[in-house]
Recover the amino acids of this structure.
């Protein structure tokens, strides 16, 4: 299905459901459904104000943006060194980069798998573009138990800081 809430002729496609139908004529079908965060926030793919320096959704000046997420001197210095002005629309915005991310898969028997994300942060503490998985919850309807798996992106040398590395300079 094409989601284009802004009538910009910029369709975003999301997998809403997946149905496995039996081939033996029994008419049995298993339906999986998928949920996403903020599908309606995504706007025109070609509009430069909607994308940060790393190419991830930002929302530009069209949505209320809280700039307090740029809370490290390292982040500000890094982007200013690259020529990005303070409080500029090209700074990565963790409150916006979640738009369009898969948040939950619902299984035919009633269980689900839920995804929680966090912003990419480099080893130097710089907020980079995009998100990474922070936690996955699996709910089993038969037992009523939710199991959780947490993901930490650290090195063996320092388990308190992010091990993230930028693969390229954004400019």
């Amino acid at each position: 299905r094409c989601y284009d809430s802004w009538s910009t002729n910029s369709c975003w496609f999301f997998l809403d459901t997946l149905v496995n139908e039996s081939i033996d004529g029994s008419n049995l079908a298993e339906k999986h459904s998928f949920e996403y965060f903020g599908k309606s926030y995504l706007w025109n793919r070609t509009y430069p104000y909607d994308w940060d320096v790393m190419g991830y959704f930002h929302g530009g000046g069209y949505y209320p943006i809280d700039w307090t997420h740029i809370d490290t001197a390292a982040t500000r210095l890094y982007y200013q060194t690259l020529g990005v002005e303070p409080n500029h629309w090209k700074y990565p915005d963790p409150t916006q980069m979640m738009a369009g991310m898969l948040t939950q898969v619902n299984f035919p028997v009633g269980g689900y798998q839920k995804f929680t994300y966090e912003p990419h942060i480099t080893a130097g503490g710089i907020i980079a573009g995009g998100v990474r998985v922070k936690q996955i919850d699996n709910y089993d309807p038969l037992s009523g138990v939710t199991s959780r798996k947490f993901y930490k992106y650290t090195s063996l040398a320092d388990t308190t800081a992010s091990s993230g590395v930028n693969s390229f300079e954004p400019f």
